[in-house]
Design brief:
The complex is a heterodimer of chains A (about 290) and B (about 300).
Chain A: H1 3-12, H2 14-34, E1 37-41, E2 49-53, H3 57-64, H4 66-99, H5 102-117, H6 120-131, H7 138-144, H8 157-181, H9 186-194, H10 199-210, H11 212-227, H12 231-239, H13 250-259, H14 264-293
Antiparallel strand pairs in A: 1-2
Chain B: H1 3-9, H2 11-20, H3 29-56, H4 61-66, H5 77-123, H6 129-138, H7 144-157, H8 164-172, H9 175-188, H10 191-199, H11 204-215, H12 217-233, H13 236-241, H14 250-264, H15 269-289, H16 291-303
Classes of the chains: A mainly alpha (about 290), B mainly alpha (about 300).
């Protein structure tokens, strides 16, 4: 390629590069820089605050901050339950759709995608009200079944949020798995059927291994989302502050440190820590799932 | 890029399967019925919250608390709409306009930048190209908090917090859009075409605006649609950079209304639900109108 044309090609990417520097690299650099300092009140707090370089103090504080570590643990444990469950349902529905004639399948596919079209905040508003003992029908349904459930009780918060996330995410994950399923060469099924394999066996031995990549991807995306969960618990907190504390998830803690406690330096250190944890978690998950494939 | 559309139909495969299937009983009526029951149950689960929301928006306060949640009781939809649009001097309308402004203008600008970048990355070979692409993919892993908090500080240093710019500017740079645009360029713009245009003496800018952009209408529409939905649904960024009610988005406004009850004892549940229903309407219209694009976009973006 001619040298001058190369640079013309590079010019097309300049607006993005500038924006990326200003909106991504600069903020990250700034966060890392801020995380190395702390604001100290001099004297009795009358002399105003001074900023002091403290090195990695904010990080050691973050790593020993039980509220922060507990919030991460809480989210990770929750992810271990909710994500496999959601993916399993999505996989089942995708397999169901794949076994139907395509005409019927496309109808169901649209219906199952309806929740995904709804903004996360609105989805949370709807479910919080469905759970509400005053407005929602679920409490009454529970009573008629002899179940005395209260979705706002501390023990029910995670199942309640888990159901909301599952409801919101099934459609999207199903579509991704379903389109991967469409790529399975149909001759494989014929061959298997001639060999006397049942439909269940075909699903287990051909279809599911084939969509492994799609499952890994949806799992990875779900993990990234889960570690950053904020909207849903924030909305629950708006309604029942006594069950959802303001340090429920890592991002809630970071937000509170920055905007309620005014402790930007510490908030910056915590967000860098979260980014590192996210990177490590994604890497581990990817390694683990692709290793098994070999 | 119409990958899913094509494979979804596959009429020839189906007829072949029907002819050669050795044992039709293995997946006979019973099997199909089982699948249908499962899917109907899943559909009911997906739809009943939306149904409940629609029903709730038609009720007055007493019926909302006392009648069966899944069926109508009185018709007060117009009253509710009137209340939503007039409460606090019609601030809801303002939030709607803001959401449209941020999602519309932000996504349009973001799509144009993404298409140019994707084209540059896919069809030119220049030093640093791989580094840019690595940045694009790597940025998928950066948590929103890590970007949003320092961005807030930067914006407040230059006096942009609490202005529409604080929402619009971040929307202009969307790595996922760039990623999609690159994939679409690779699928739709052949090198030969570019060569031919160059031999005819067209300049690079002219080629981009009059040939590439025109051929990328479908891909561009998908990128725009996904960016629009993303911005419309955004919550953490507006919550962080917008302080005054005037510049809020619909999501932020509704979130604030849900919390009002605790602070002041005023019950806005009816307003929140009617407002929530309204905020879905533009999404639903767009999704239906552009169904073909977004379905392929969702799957292609995830699989490639």
């Amino acid at each position: 390629m001619i040298r001058s044309m190369r640079w013309k090609g590079a010019a097309f990417t300049v607006p993005f590069q500038l924006g990326f520097v200003f909106l991504y690299l600069l903020p990250i650099g700034y966060a890392v820089y801020e995380s190395l300092f702390t604001e100290k009140q001099s004297g009795l707090g009358l002399g105003g605050a001074t900023t002091e370089f403290v090195g990695l103090d904010n990080y050691t504080q973050g790593l020993t901050d039980s509220a922060f570590m507990n919030s991460i643990l809480r989210v990770v444990l929750f992810a271990c339950v909710q994500i496999p469950m959601m993916l399993l349902i999505s996989l089942l529905l995708a397999l169901f759709l794949d076994a139907l004639t395509s005409r019927v399948a496309s109808r169901f596919r649209i219906v199952l995608l309806v929740p995904y079209m709804i903004p996360g905040v609105v989805a949370a508003i709807v479910w919080v009200n469905l759970y509400s003992p005053d407005v929602g029908p679920l409490t009454a349904i529970g009573t008629s079944l002899g179940l005395d459930w209260n979705f706002f009780a501390p023990s029910m918060v995670w199942p309640a949020i888990g159901n909301l996330l599952t409801w919101h995410g099934i459609g999207y994950n199903m579509v991704i798995i379903y389109s991967a399923l469409q790529g399975v060469p149909r001759e494989l099924f014929e061959a298997a059927r001639l060999d006397g394999a049942s439909e269940l066996r075909i699903a287990r031995s051909i279809k599911i291994p084939f969509v492994r990549g799609a499952l890994v991807l949806t799992g990875l995306l779900s993990i990234i989302q889960m570690l950053q969960i904020f909207n849903e618990p924030a909305l629950f907190r708006n309604i029942t502050p006594q069950t959802v504390s303001d340090s429920f998830t890592p991002i809630m803690i970071i937000y509170n440190q920055a905007f309620n406690a005014g402790n930007y330096n510490y908030a910056a250190a915590l967000s860098v820590l979260l980014a590192l944890i996210l990177g490590v978690a994604s890497f581990l998950f990817y390694r683990l799932t692709s290793k098994e494939a070999d | 890029m119409t990958l899913t559309e094509q494979t979804t139909e596959r009429p020839e495969v189906r007829s072949v399967r029907r002819l050669t299937r050795p044992d039709p009983a293995s997946r006979g009526r019973g099997g199909q019925r089982f699948l249908l029951v499962g899917l109907v149950l899943a559909s009911a689960y997906s739809l009943f919250p939306v149904w409940w929301l629609i029903v709730a928006a038609t009720k007055d306060r007493t019926a909302l608390y006392q009648s069966n949640g899944l069926w109508f009781s009185g018709w007060h939809l117009w009253d509710n709409l009137h209340q939503v649009f007039t409460y606090q001097d019609g601030i809801f309308l303002r939030w709607t306009a803001n959401s449209f402004l941020y999602a519309g203008v932000g996504s349009l600008g973001g799509t144009l930048i993404a298409l140019a970048t994707g084209y540059g990355l896919a069809r030119f070979d220049f030093p640093g190209r791989n580094a840019i692409f690595a940045c694009v993919v790597g940025s998928f892993l950066i948590p929103i908090a890590l970007l949003t908090l320092p961005l807030y500080l930067l914006f407040s240093a230059i006096g942009m917090v609490d202005t529409p710019w604080a929402m619009l500017i971040p929307c202009l740079i969307n790595p996922f859009s760039v990623y999609l645009a690159k994939v679409y360029t690779e699928a739709t713009i052949p090198y030969e075409l570019l060569e031919a245009a160059r031999i005819d003496g067209a300049g690079e800018l002219r080629i981009f605006f009059s040939i590439v952009l025109r051929m990328m209408t479908t891909g561009g529409a998908t990128v725009f649609l996904l960016a629009f939905v993303n911005t419309w649904n955004a919550f953490f960024l507006p919550l962080t950079v917008l302080r005054g009610k005037e510049n809020w988005t619909l999501n932020l406004g509704l979130y604030n209304w849900t919390g009002t009850r605790l602070e002041s004892g005023i019950d806005l549940t009816g307003l929140v639900l009617t407002g929530a229903l309204l905020s879905i309407v533009p999404m639903a219209i767009m999704m239906v109108a552009m169904r073909r694009y977004w379905r392929t976009g969702v799957t292609l973006g995830a699989l490639k």
